[in-house]
Amino acid sequence: MGAAKSGQAAARLIIHHGGKVKISDNGPDLTPAEFKPWASQNKIETQWGGHTQDFIEASDLVVLSPGVPINAKPVEWAKAKKIPVIGEIELAYRFCDRPIIAVTGSNGKTTVSTLIHDLIAEAGYKVCLCGNVGFPFADFVQDLSKTDFIVLEISSFQLETIVDFKPHVAVFTNFSQNHLDRHKDVGEYFEAKTRFFMNQDKNDFAVLNAQNEWIKKLGSKLKAKVLYFNREKTEINPNYLAVREVAKALKIDPQVCEKVFAEFKGVEHRLEFVRTIAGVDYVNDSKATNPEAGRWALENIHKPIIMICGGRDKNMNFSVLRDLVGKKVKKMIVIGEAKEKLKNTFKNVVEVEESAKLDQAVAMAKTIASDGDCVLLSPMCASFDMFNNFEHRGEVFKEIVRNLNGK
After folding, report:
1. Chain centroid, CA 303 distance in Å
2. How far is Cα 170 from Cα 245, in angstroms, rounded to an integer?
3. Cα distance between residue 158 and residue 8, in whole Å
4. For residues 243 and 105, which has the higher predicted lDDT (pLDDT)?
5. CATH class of 5-83
6. pTM (2 decimals)?
7. Residue 133 in contact with residue 114, Cβ under 8 Å?
């Protein structure tokens, strides 16, 4: 159910093992051209523009894409017929016999997952990086002959549908408000995250952020061996501290960590430097889809900031950043569905301008910025009102900046 990347990967895995696949999607047929002949060749039944009860009920197993809520009507139809409902992560796990290092958290997942992948590769092992980071887990388990470890980035949506999934090392980077358009409150969101540890045992490891009150309390409740990172306030990036604990769990020499950190160039769309024009830096932080990600950007840029933000609100409380925005932001430009909420939140601490489109916002920022400033795209919102995903939003921003006149 759901025909985006994870749904297509699940279909490929099931066909690989001799199963019969049907695909049901609420939207129009937007599958890539290369997928369609393969689907036809494998006699995959498809249903577009909505789910029907007969189609769902005539199934042995429902594999849910993370974008489909677990309380959706078609899921209720399946459960009423006692048809098991799992996600693509759980499906792939059932065909995986390699140790999994999995990473979740409200922010920092992609950076930590990427660093762990690089750490394991630098230590001389064969490793793949997949999951929420962009490459479905199900595509990697068809052939594990060239893999020693799986590094998996996993979201709360994906954790909602696990059953037996059991990472050998589970890393919880941090926790803050997020996805409150999907979860009824912060507590429910946290409960989804804690499913991460439910199948671990004494031979596994839980790597927890000691500075986060929500996460810290988990330690005494887990069966896994607990390794805390970020035990005290320090200038060291907490993402690096988490990776060091993973190295301990995997018995990898700490010097390998330092080499990986020294060579790390960062993650695309996360505080990604794009270009300097007339002394003004342009930074792409499109991956910032909640206020805490915005906080990280503001705290780590040490120049006056013209901040472009907005998109689809996830029922976030932006007021937690009022003081920081007042100190760090020279001017805010708001776009998308959340622009009125953002304007009302910050208008008393910074001058706020509205813009209809991203290109207009960038042009406006260019006229405002002066030598020594930074133009920062850090939306703090989802992208789906104007873009396909945060990657698409970041690519559009970078293309706009590359096409600006000036040196």
Report:
1. 27
2. 11
3. 15
4. 243
5. alpha beta
6. 0.83
7. yes
In the chain, the amino acid numbered 235 is: E
Annotated domain spans of the chain? 5-83, 90-263, 272-402
What amino acid is encoded at 129 in this protein? L
Task: Give the whole-angstrom CA distance, residue 234 versus residue 264.
Answer: 20
- Specify the CATH class of 272-402 in words: alpha beta
Give the rounded percent of residues in the chain with a pLDDT score beyond 70: 98
Angle between helices 254-263 and 238-249 (to 10 degrees): 140
Query: What confidence tier does 179 reach under pLDDT thresholds 50, 70, 90?
Result: very low
Tokens of 387: 């873009």
Which tokens sit at 383? 């992208």
Give the separation between CA 136 and CA 157, rounded to whole angstroms. Answer: 14
DSSP 310: E
Which residues, at least 6 apart from 333, have a Cβ–Cβ distance to it below 8 Å? 306, 307, 308, 309, 352, 353, 354, 355, 361, 364, 365
CATH class held by domain 90-263: alpha beta
Pairing of strands 305-310, 374-377: parallel
And the tokens for 208?
Answer: 């927890």
Which distant-in-sequence residues (6+ apart) come within 8 Å of 243 by Cβ? 112, 115, 116, 119, 257, 260, 261
For 332-357, the pLDDT digits (tens) are 999 999 999 999 999 999 999 999 99
Are 189 and 156 in contact by the 8 Å Cβ rule? The answer is yes
Running DSSP on this structure, what letter comes out for residue 312? B
| Phi-psi region at 103: left, alpha or beta (left = phi > 0; alpha = psi -120 to 50) | beta
